[in-house]
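Case study.
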Amino acid sequence: MKKIDSTFWNMLWSLTLITAVAGGLLGYTHRLTEEPIARATKAGREKAIQEVIPEYDNSPIDEQQTIVVRNEYGETPTIVYPAQKEGRLSGAAVECSNNTGYSGEIRIIVGFNADGSIKDYRVLKHEETPGLGAKMNEWFRSEKNDQNILGKSPAKNKLQVKQEAGEVDAITAATITSKAFLGAVRTAYEAYIETTKGENHE
Amino acid sequence: MLTYISIFITAIFVNNIVLSQFLGICPFLGVSKRIDSALGMGAAVTFVMTIATIVTYLLQTYLLMPLHLDYMQTIAFILVIAALVQLLEIIIKKIAPSLYQALGVFLPLITTNCTILGVALIVIQKNMSLLEATVYAISTALGFTLALVIFAGMREQMSLSRIPKAMQGTPIALITAGLLAMAFMGFSGIKIG
Amino acid sequence: MNKTKILLNGLIKENPTFVLLLGMCPTLGTTTSASGGLGMGLSTLFVLICSNVAISMAKNIIPDKVRIPAFIVIIATFVTILQLCMQAYLPDLYETLGLFIPLIVVNCILLGRAEAFAAKHTPGDAFFDGLGIGLGFTVALTLLGCVREFLGTGHIFGLPVYPEEYGSLIFILAPGAFIALGFLIAIIHTIKTR
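After joint prediction, the assembly is written out as follows.
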């Protein structure tokens, strides 16, 4: 086949054809992947909740509630997934974010035991420096020095970096990220306390 | 008002698009041998980035979102940017020949400059308002220009010095860029508002 | 044309990163770890092979004057397909590479190969050119990722080699990316001229 000339009509039908094929192909792929994408997003969230929440026999995701926390960071909407065991509150997973990091939002999920101590945490999303910010997921569970926050409770322990007279070692060269991360943890705790208050009234 | 000043300072110094986000490296290394061409490129990028961000923002909010065509974002944005660059080239040539003389050679290079598409995508990702997006686009472009001009100044000086054979050309340019990036790290952590 | 020759040309003689210096943004931006570099390299490899073959097959129905927009549409289509599939099946990798996935569209390697090779050769040859250049890019990114991860954190592909405390953090941060790539290119040039 010979290459076609650059006449107006040739250009028009050629580009129309290519865009039409491209559009069709994309629409088809979109239809195929729409459901797996939704599932992957949901599975990621559910997996994170499962990993941090204490034992439960209710359905935390269906019973989730949004609580707005007002503190030094202004108003932060948080999502509390309550865990109940035999009708009693056994803790919760709290999803919350903090905007005072190095760049953009840090979104974490923290699991609290009934007594308010931290069971576990996961970082859901962050835009910190690649390679440094990613350390958040490992750093604060390491037994080295004073890095660990698991098992501690924001009520009893001063969960702030040592530079702010707290008792937690900040990530080397990422103090701002660490401050913002711990800020999110404290905000999550306030949201958790808020839900337990409601629980006591019942 | 404070938000906009904060966006402005952050985009230029703290999160400089070239030196800390790694976008637009190709023109950064390619068009930085002389200060005047660096300035020309910077001006052309500022011009196109501001207009392109506004147009793609409107396209996303009023066409792609209502029609649930979000997945066409990449393809729609790059076509709009390519068309826009062509259009601007024709318009500038007609109404401002002197400006065309200054910026003309840089315009065709801009379609494949990833800062333009990058910024268009970032403002959508970060849920900015139209005004915030515009301020962000202008400041990012100014940050790009600043990095480019400083780097060109360094390279002009460097062309006079003797450099080991293995390091000549790209290697020494990259290492200089690394030192410049290190200097910009001094801005990190600056917070306004 | 000889297939192995096309393959080796892309891998070594015209290596996109070390020789042609194309696609620098993802090269520096995604190589904080070896696995990040490898993921980005393979993503680009996929789009490059697809777009090279498609453009080579369609070359006769694309008039010369509108070839650039036509190429861009074809490349962007494959990038979006990759984007959707990654979101669905590899969400973690998609999250790590972030913005650099849609930005494959403006990677000069793709448009460069379309213009310089695919538009002039048969689909078979274009496939091997895409494979060669793509592999060259992948190898370069993985190598840079290994160097940065090793010097910065003492790990390679997440496996510890020496204690993290002795790593020099700068290689994970932005300046280290430029400096590590500068030295790598200098070393490769020296070896090649020997």
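Observations recorded in class. The first strand of chain C starts at residue 155 and ends at 156. The beta strands of chain C are 155-156, 159-160. We will return to this complex in the next lecture.
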